[in-house]
Amino acid sequence: MKDTYLLADIGNTTIDLALYDGVKIEKVKIPNQDQKKIEEQLSLWGEENIQNCVVSSVNQEGSENLIITLNQIGLPFEIITPKRMTDFANRNGYTITNTSYLGTDLFCDIIADDAAPQIIIDLGTVGKILYLDRDKIFHGCSIFPGIRRIPGMLEQSADMLDNYDLTKNPPLVSLKTEECISSGAINGIACLVSSMVQQIQKKYDAFDSKIFLTGGDSAFVQSLLEEYGLKDVIYDPDLSIRGLLRLLNL
């Protein structure tokens, strides 16, 4: 019988907790400040049935909350380190020269699928577009505000704008302020992503790239990208978790 793994992908806003039993992945998303919900979820899964835990993190507070819980229940864990990433890259033919400071979530995005070249659109608290060429050389990424962050940024900068909740599928233009903001955030990021990916394809002659869409905000633009000129996008909300599994050789 294979061991059951707890996989934790800790972002700036939420923790993706995934239970992997060697066959299937069961995943939940929890606010990274909510230690009680972490405890409740592990209890629901049956903490006594979990043999291993692996943590990928880009947020200190989220890491501390999870580690407190893991220590309380006596579950051993491993935190992914730059050395672990470098060793994997070297063994598997990747050239990733910035593993000393590259976020483990982005590293897991890059290695989740063995395809090369590939372009990865990761839309979370922060939006990223990553490029790996056909020789498995990682060229880096672009970074931009996350979709859900845009209303709050506008509220802080403009007296007459509020931090409205986003509405899915907003019109391109509107007379309603909340729809205007939703359009700028959702349609605007969809256009940005589509254009940036096409420019990467053109600059690096990477028209044969696999294109992945992932991240907590990716559902906002999933249905829009083809409309804005980006075709054959593979939607994979579990991309970083799959990368963790590959990093662990599971």
Automatic annotation (TrEMBL):
A monovalent cation. Ammonium or potassium. It is found in: Cytoplasm. GO terms for molecular function: ATP binding; metal ion binding; pantothenate kinase activity. Substrate binds at residues 103-106, 177. Its cofactor is NH4(+); K(+). It is an enzyme of class 2 (transferase). One of its GO terms (biological process) is coenzyme A biosynthetic process. Pathway: Cofactor biosynthesis; coenzyme A biosynthesis; CoA from (R)-pantothenate: step 1/5. Homodimer. This is Type III pantothenate kinase. It comes from Treponema rectale. The gene is coaX.
